[in-house]
Amino acid sequence: MNLLSPHIALYRLYDLADEIDLSRLATPRLRLSRPRLGAVRFENPPAQLELGVRSVEGISGLLTARLYEFGVASLSFRVHLGEKVPWEAFLEKALALPELPFWEGFFLAELLALEPYLQGALLHPEKKRLSEEFTVYHALGIEGGKSPRPPCGPHPPLDGGQGGVRPRGPAGDGALPLQLLHRGPGPFGL
User: Fold this and answer.
1) Helix (H, G, I), strand (E, B) or coil at 90
2) Smallest Cα–Cα separation from 11: which of 181, 133, 100?
3) Count of CA atoms in the C-beta half-sphere (13 A) of 190
4) Where are the alpha helices (DSSP H) in 99-183?
């Protein structure tokens, strides 16, 4: 079984301040709104910075920062694994990549590089910055897989643990778009 165009997105969220005055930043704003009932909707969307491709310890990916008015910065490092990846190879990378020891230093260095850009926009900065990490596993589908339209509503974790499977968008070409979620730092349970 092959996954189509899978990638792994490593996230770090940092509580920087009581508020980030987004009007003081010269950056494009995301338009996050979806008509579906219960979907995410931001009246004041976050600012987004495309920080470009980074390479760390031989792993390359796209780094993005999102800055939210409620004082949180989200850094995302997205690693594309290929066009068709065997399930076993995907699972091996999915288990190993988030556990590599250099991620904390990498994300902290990138956050420090953003500090000059944030000057004057942080209202009541936090003295002790809290952080949260999580990993999102994406694939456009499964090669040759036939699937019905993905169900709507909440989807439970595969194994009753912290992770889960979420369908993404309509099924196309017989493949089920999916998104596997995992909250660190424990192993990805399947």
Assistant:
1) helix
2) 133
3) 12
4) 103-118
Q: Are 110 and 63 in contact, with CB atoms under 8 Å apart?
A: yes
**Tokens 């260095």 identify what position?**
109
Buried b (16+ CB within 10 A) or exposed e, 73-90: bbbbbbeebeeebebeeb
Mean pLDDT within 25-37:
57
Share of the chain above pLDDT 70, in %: 67
In this structure, what token pair is assigned to residue 189? 């349970």
**Residue 84's closest CA among 146, 139, 136?**
139
Residue 61 confidence (pLDDT) above 90? yes
In angstroms, how far apart are the furthest CA atoms of the chain? 53
Residue pLDDT, tens place only, 119-147: 888 889 888 888 899 899 888 888 876 54
CA pseudo-torsion sign 64, 93, 99, 136: positive
